Hints:
DNA polymerase IV; DNApol_IV; Alpha-Beta Plaits; DNA damage; DNA-binding
Amino acid sequence: MSTSIPSPPGFCRDCLTPQSEERKRCGRCGSPRLVYHAELDRLAIAHIDCDAFYASVEKRDDPTLADKPVIIGGGKRGVVSTCCYIARIHGVRSAMPMFKALEACPEAVVIKPDMDKYARVGRQVRTMMQELTPLVQPLSIDEAFLDLSGTELLHHEPPARVLARLARRIEAEVGITVSVGLSYCKFLAKIASDLRKPRGFAVIGETEALSFLAPRSVTSIWGVGKAFAAQLEADGIRTIGQLQTMEEGDLMRRYGTLGQRLYRLSRGKDDRRVEPDEEARSISAETTFDDDVSNHDELVRVLRRISEKVAARLKKSGVAGHTVVLKLKTGDFRQRTRNRRLEDPTQLADRIFRTGVTLLEKETGADAFRLIGIGVSDLTDPARADPPDLVDEQATRRARAEGAMDLLRNKFGNKAIETGYTFGNTRPRR
């Protein structure tokens, strides 16, 4: 006498009807968007990612763009911020130079990014997440981790169905779509959300973690970028399965603390918690030029302008930074990053700018640059920022002047007062 194997738990993502047995379409609404998994009702760690976020918002606001390839970016020397899935079919990708994107998809509609609008939509989506659980950890404007452990009594259904209901609500009320990854840890939830985009819902359980990860590239592991992947490949390691056969001590001897991460994540071991109060690690601004710039004075003028942007964001966010970071990109897309840690954290454009100029002076000469950026990292409480300089009285006077300028700009707008560096600086740039 044969014993039938019970069907794994499942439900329809469109009408949310539970499914008692595996089938191709929902018995109630006929939708093919069904999800089944043996661990479906036990998993609670999710990663939600908005699909082609900027482009989706623009298509929502202009229905005539619905069936057209859309690229968010700007300027002939700019890069693609993001693009819709139609443009991706033509080979367009994020961070691709704009001229290459338009070569791949000349019929694309190019729209300059409207970050204020995207931030408003992102906050709207995040508020919906926080209505389900206080454990929401934003990673960027359009993605976040959620921990729904222990919320089943509150919502009267398991986390998987709560997440599917949230995805439906975002689509109906916000007008964009999201993809959901559900697992038992952050590492696999993040991977899962990328598996079936757009409008995806993918599940990776604990019992299948090893076999799921084994054939995947080592680049699927958080922290393994191009350089580290090349080092691993030189050592004959290309897949996560190869890492699964290696001992932790051996990996640590070869790669230090990164070796321990390789060992644990390759086995699906990730005990990082969803941290709702995790703050941004840096604040920065950058400019891409329409034509490569080698002139030191012009680079300095732009550096002043973006230093003021960074300072304004620091003050608005109520944080200060210990480390100033200068970013440069040459015409052939080679990137340079230089940094200097300050004795005291800062919010001042003057200190950010002067530190940036010191770093810049060592880089200018024969090279021309297509991009310059400045930022601060190691963010901290502003209470200890920018104490009076007892040695350099001019620095203290400049700090006071900057405070007065801030008051005028808050009252009359950013253009109410400018420094000699930025006044009349109208060179075209993205």
